[in-house]
Amino acid sequence: xxxxxxTIAVRGASPYDVVVGRDVLDRVADLLGDGxxxxxxxxxxxxxxxxxxxxxxxxxxxDVLALGLPDAEQAKTAAVAADCWEALGERGFxxxxxxxxxxxxxxxxxxxxxxxxxxxxVRVVHVPSTLLGMVDAAVGGKTGINTAAGKNLxxxxxxxxxxxxxxxxxxxxxxxxxxxxxGEVLKCGFIADPEILRLVETTDPADLTPTSxxxxxxxxxxxxxxxxxxxxxxxxxxxxADQPGHPGRExxxxxxxxxxxIERAEGYALRHGDAVAVGCVFVAELARRxxxxxxxxxxxxxxxxxxxxLPVGYAGADFEDLLAAMRVDKKARGSQLRFVVLGGLGxxxxxxxxxxxxxxxxxxxxxxxxxxxxxxxxPRTDEDPQP
Length: 387
Known about the structure:
Strand content: 15-25%
Radius of gyration: 20 Å
Strand order of the largest sheet: 1-2-9-6-5-3-4
Domain 3-dehydroquinate synthase C-terminal: 181-332
Protein name: 3-dehydroquinate synthase
Oligomer: single chain
Number of helices: 13
Number of strands: 11
Structural class: alpha/beta
Organism: Nocardioides aquaticus
CATH superfamily of the largest domain: Dehydroquinate synthase-like - alpha domain
Function: Catalyzes the conversion of 3-deoxy-D-arabino-heptulosonate 7-phosphate (DAHP) to dehydroquinate (DHQ).
Binding site for NAD(+): 71-76, 105-109, 142, 151
Shape: globular
CATH architecture of the largest domain: Up-down Bundle
Largest sheet: 7 strands, mixed
């Protein structure tokens, strides 16, 4: 028998709950409440069976409009958002109606943006179907779509009415996608909760499965890290009043500056969590070169990420191309690059305007590391789902 569901309260300006457990999809309607008449279920196209099961639950209380979305980052375009708006308009959605998303991070990003922009904002409940979505994209109210210039450059903050993390949805997730999600989990360990690192370092990676109590604890801990950060700095306005020197919500972008540049260089064909893993190694090398962290902490990045099968190296693009992409990162200020680095374990800080020679040297290290981030031909892609 599975453990009871846990509710993690997000107590900011717009309070909501994050429910974590197995077989908890019935909680979606509870979070939506009795206000909506119509609910748009925006789901990742490959999740048709799961979407139908969720729609059957929702139709008992609401008029349900199911809208399938393109796969992964292909969903995060202005054209897809416009198609969704047209569908809502044709169905007569009002400000009292709601959106439910079912899918990974791309689905929650796009669906949250549609909900935020329709009639200047309607309720949305996220049901993330991937580990990455559960620990990152679904929580915190960030929404966004991509443009030719870069990733997530268009978006707004729109907090959900609730999030339901049903761990049973991970049962059919390919192992490679579960491993990629651990990239965001381990990021939370480095910036805020070292117990996450200890759990991974002392657990056989083969035992990190959707039914594992350790994986559930990792999910809960990573969500708790994100909740703590976003409540203190919802709109990334800079810093935390309770922790001088802390970069606030910007800390959640640890490893993401290079990761987003890599994703753009590869046409968004890579797993986000894999790119984040490489990005974390890169900023650890940058922090090592600038004296912010010691060799042991820098090396720990490589060791723990590689332990679970995440890539720590990448050589698929020239440094100059990646540098140009990083200059349009949303953390940049004018012509100055900004990176979240560590000043010690659990102590994120901002490194502004690093020397280009240090950036190049850090990337040179990443280029020579194994295992290496690869594209759709990754042999993990065709592995069977979780046991």
